Amino acid sequence: MSSNASMHGLWQSRWLFILAATGSAVGLGNIWKFPYITGENGGGAFVLVYLLCISIIGIPVMIAEVSLGRMGRQSPINTMKALAQKAGASPLWSSIGWMGAIAGFLILSFYSVIAGWALSYTLDMASGNFVNISAENSGKIFGDLLANPTQLTIWHTAFMILTLGVVARGVNAGLEKAIKVLMPVLFILLFILFGYALSSSGFGQGFSFMFDFDFSKLTTESIMVALGHAFFTLSLGLGAIMAYGAYMPADTSIAKTIIIVAFLDTAVAIMAGLAIFPIVFANGLEPSAGPGLLFQTLPIAFGQMSGGVIFGTMFFVLVSFAAWSSAISLAEPIVAWFVEKFKMSRTLAAVIIGFSAWLLGLATVFSFNIWSDVKMFDKTVFDLLDFLTTNIMLPLGGLLIAIFVGWKMSETKMMNEVGIDYPILFKLWRFTLRFLAPIAIIAVLVNGLI
Ligand code: PFF
Fold first, then answer.
1. Looking at the chain, which terminus has fewer C-beta neighbours within 10 angstroms, N or C?
2. C-beta neighbour count of 280 within 10 angstroms
3. 237 CB near ligand 1 (under 6 Å)
4. Quick check: CB of 24 below 6 Å from ligand 1?
5. Whose CA is nearest to atom 13 of ligand 1?
6. Could you read off the pLDDT of 311-328 as tens digits, one per residue?
7. Which residues contact 17 (CB under 8 A, 6 or more apart)?
8. Are 335 and 353 contacting, i.e. CB atoms less than 8 angstroms apart?
9. How far apart are CA 38 and CA 288, in angstroms?
């Protein structure tokens, strides 16, 4: 079993690890992205493929990634270097850490811009701008925000400062304190919204949209999006959850803990979908509206609800918080590596990474307005960054993790580490890493890219 020390600190309990990992997993991916990609990819059949990807590939790879982190107890780059050396494998395996750190940095750059939308909506909600708003005007407010690079930059800047501020303070002082309060409140609010959607006239239609499986709507690209999103939503394949695993107490069962985290993450996504689609249908909106879906629909619901100003404000505060706790984990692998490699303070590392990601984020800001015509492969800068990281880099990272743990790490060592009590389940997990996950990921990537 792994040692019980990391230079960056340790989570104080299993419960805190669950909160932190859930804080990383639950974010814009669940509340903003899952509903709109479900809308763009035709609904039920996509949801089914996504759920299969989570359970068959996501959870086993997540257990593997966290185990690597806990065995290495360092930043993902150094963890992979050390473990590869110990296992007598090529030092090239540290590329898992490298590619992950780069992917995390790229995602952070655009994640911060979208999280900025949530900050901006918090203020709009609190000012009562959405009271009794029509679908048309709600769309207009969103359009106006995207058309305004200055506004977007201000919110992007604010979010980046918040994020790196916590990262600079480190595991115990920064991350734990923030997450402890936020996650439980987010769940409560989602329940309230779900209750509202349940009573709305569009509930039946929204429900069928999410759970009627019409396979004719499924394309190879949507399968690729579903797989990529399974990785994105579980914070998988880039070392974020590996970095968090490095701070996990040695006596906790990784497998049981991860199953809880994956369950909570999926529950939030499904609840967000069930809250949003009924409003989409009740108001004659398009489920395939794209990245604006959340921001155009929920304000309409809050606008009609009694107490909507308060609930709406709370909701966007919580979305911002969920994004915050995820963004922190995006920065963690690369910041931890800077600290180890250059012996610099966490604060300096956070400033350097934060500033660079902020600068790159401006490209995403402009892709919604002044650069909206700048396209490569028919994609804007934002679309391209999102596609490259989510649909390619994360699954590739997951593939390498599965192969490394399945083929390079000793079976006994893994058995002692992961905490799967039943030998047959352990065998099944290992089989998945050795064969099932790699074959599935390669098949989806190859098909999707051709
Ligand atoms: N899981 C986060 C979300 O769903 O919003 C995003 C994310 C965080 C992706 C950390 C990857 C990661 F390493």
1. C
2. 24
3. no
4. yes
5. 235
6. 889 889 889 989 998 999
7. 11, 244, 247, 248, 249, 252, 257
8. yes
9. 8
